Amino acid sequence: MAQGTTPRTADAGREEQPGPPQDAGPNGDGLAPSGAPLRGMSGGMAAGMGGGMAGGMAGGMAGGRQRPPLRRTFRAFQYPKYRLLWASMATAMVGMQMQMIARGLLAFELAGNFSAVGALAAAWGIPQLFLALPGGAIADRVDKRTVLLITQAVVCLQALGVALLISFDAISLQVLFAFGVVLGGTFSFNMPARQAYIPELVPRHELMNAIALNNTAMNATRLFSPVVAGILIAAFGFAVTYYITAGMYAVAWGAVWLLPRGRGHMQGIAERGNMLEEIKIGLRYVRGNRALRTLMLMALLPILLGIPFVTILPAFAAGDLGLNPRGFGLLMAVNAVGALAGSLLIAALNPAGRLARTQALLGLGWGGGLVMLGVGSLTLGATGAFLAMMVIGACSMAYMALNNGMIMTSSEQRYHGRIMSLYMLTFGFMPMMGLPLGVLGDAIGGYATFTLLGAGLLGSVLLLVLLVPSDLIDRAARAMPGEAAEAETPAGPARGA
User: Fold this and answer.
1) Are the CB atoms for 370 and 306 separated by under 8 Å?
2) Considering its fold, how many domains does the chain have in total?
3) Rounded to an integer, what distance in angstroms lies between the CA atom of residue 405 and that of residue 207?
4) 291 with 477: CB under 8 angstroms?
5) How far is 264 from 137, CA to CA, in rounded Å?
6) Confidence of residue 423 (pLDDT cuts 50, 70, 90)
7) What digits encode the pLDDT tens for the residues 278-299?
8) pTM confidence score
9) What count of Cα atoms within 13 Å lies in the side-chain half-sphere of residue 166?
10) Element (H or E) spanning 62, and its range?
11) Percentage of the chain surpassing pLDDT 70?
């Protein structure tokens, strides 16, 4: 069992709580809205019925009937407030994907070089290194809905500001860079609050599904948003594209406005001090929990070894595979299809299964996909690259969705904002890998670079599997430390207190 959590019963790894069971249904009948059994009851019943029945029930049995696969995959959508948060996030992601394409093309048009595009990417990423941890602390101490409303409004206004400057022919690369810094800093506060809000809208046993559906939305937008942005820019220009992007952000703001107030301002009162002290408390919490530490490390490994390959992928596709821009776009679309499939796989996953083992297998598949990209492309050419990108997309997104969900279910709700900010901070290291990876690619070639990255990821995952028992992580991920999420019933109203 992970350190830093309270003692649990020996037979089922659950906390003994007086009074009604955690996650009790609205009528006190001991059933969650979906009909899944409560985790708190498994201690007594598992002894009499066996772990297999408990696992099967937790996986989606309702009244003796197995849910249809489609309903099981999208089961978190039965909660209206979660649907609003999901719709807000999906709409905002469409706007963000469109803005990323428009911003890169606009920067290239203004400066005429690729360095300007890279500088804009840095402008978005650098603020997150400094503001992610404060953003998480704020998400834990104040109303999350308010944080989302403010940050979503800022995101909308920055897009509108760029659109107006383009309309009046007053845009410049320096102004675009400044808006990029604002956008990156804003998302340092937006994303931890958004992620930490999810456990307040769904029961804890549906948390993994809800997080996976969030990832599904992000991957689905990757399939069509860049195409839509390209069509809009070609037909109407940058200004109209930015106006439409601002409109998407405004719709996302409206969905957030319909949500109930978050409970961050009601939690952790006893430990509240200045923000720096709250950040330290969050870091100590992660450090004192072995399972959580391991999951954070497993989140960092792909950032260093599994994701940065995309920085040299365009040059590899053009120089080694001979793909034109259309072919490269198709290569990335195949990767996005795989990522979408991987997210849906995790959404349909039984939360009572061997999650740590599944994550390890996905990590090995991710590393194997990178090796396939190097070796397969060398032997099969573009065909090998397309197959490898499908595998990488599916395994990488399933791995990250599962890792994110296990981090959330392995931690107390009052720390979720700070933990998600630490998780998000790991992504700030990704741009730093671009330069050394480019140097390595120039030195040994793209084929060898991808193979080396894949081998490194394979070895790292195997080492963690050998060092950390999977049962330790599984027990922590299934536990309900501290408090249960007070989720609405499926028929509950959209607007809360």
Assistant:
1) yes
2) 2
3) 7
4) yes
5) 10
6) confident
7) 888 989 998 888 888 888 888 8
8) 0.72
9) 23
10) strand 61-62
11) 77
Same domain, 196 and 300: no
Which of 140, 25, 19, 42 lies closest to 479 in space, CA to CA? 42
2 occurs within a structural domain? no
- Neighbour-count burial of 365, counting CB atoms closer than 10 A to its CB (0-12 exposed, 13-18 middle, 19+ buried): buried
**Tens digits of residue pLDDT in 39-87:** 333 333 333 334 333 333 344 433 334 566 677 788 899 999 999 999 9
Q: CA–CA separation, 155 vs 196, rounded Å?
A: 19
241: domain CATH number? 1.20.1250.20
The verdict on 354 and 399 lying in the same domain is yes
User: Which tokens is 437 given?
Assistant: 């990876």
Amino acid at site 490? P
297 and 253 share one domain: no
Q: What three-state secondary structure class fits 65?
A: strand
Run of H or E including 66: strand 65-66
Average pLDDT for the chain: 78
Both 472 and 369 in one domain: the answer is yes
Residue 287: both structure tokens together: 């450090």
- For residues 371 and 454, the answer to whether their CB atoms sit within 8 Å is yes
Report H helices in 112-172: 114-141, 144-167
Same domain, 183 and 322: no
Q: ∠ CA(303), CA(341), CA(202), 5° rounding?
A: 80
Note whether 355 and 466 are same-domain residues.
yes
Q: Give the span between the Cα atoms of 249 and 89, in whole angstroms.
A: 9
Mean pLDDT of 296-320: 84
Domain that holds residue 88: 79-267
Statement: residue 31 has pLDDT above 60: no
